[in-house]
Design goal:
Elements lengths: L5 H42 L7 E5 L2 E5 L1 H46 L6
Length: about 120
């Protein structure tokens, strides 16, 4: 890598950093998507429960009895918030992906355009 210019070395380091950021964003997105699926599943289960049936909700390390409607509202709000976060992550992912491809192209051009060393 010593025959590669410092500018290209810096670009390669930036590319690796972007790749790590994209992996982190992907992992966060997957985590949020799983939480949305779990909340939707909980709503489905609550819809099968009688209106006056006791419903419990986890609050930190404590289970508390709550009104069914309050739990449903809480779950719907949670889903809404998570879906907004997912959209935000998708936006970040798209922008980062575009920059990644552009930088990758620049590096490729720089490496192909440089004179071959006689090693």
């Amino acid at each position: 890598m010593s025959s590669i210019s410092p500018k290209v070395q810096n670009q390669i380091a930036m590319l690796q950093q972007m790749q790590q950021q994209m992996q982190t964003i992907g992992a966060q997105k997957a985590q949020y998507e799983m939480a949305v699926r779990e909340a939707k599943r909980a709503i489905e289960e609550l819809n099968d429960v009688a209106e006056d049936a006791p419903v419990f909700m986890s609050v930190g390390t404590v289970m508390m009895e709550k009104k069914r409607e309050d739990v449903l509202n809480n779950l719907n709000n949670k889903i809404e918030t998570l879906e907004l976060r997912i959209k935000s992550l998708e936006k970040q992912e798209g922008m980062l992906s575009g920059k990644f491809e552009q930088l990758q192209s620049q590096i490729k051009q720089a490496l192909e355009g440089r004179p071959q060393s006689a090693s």
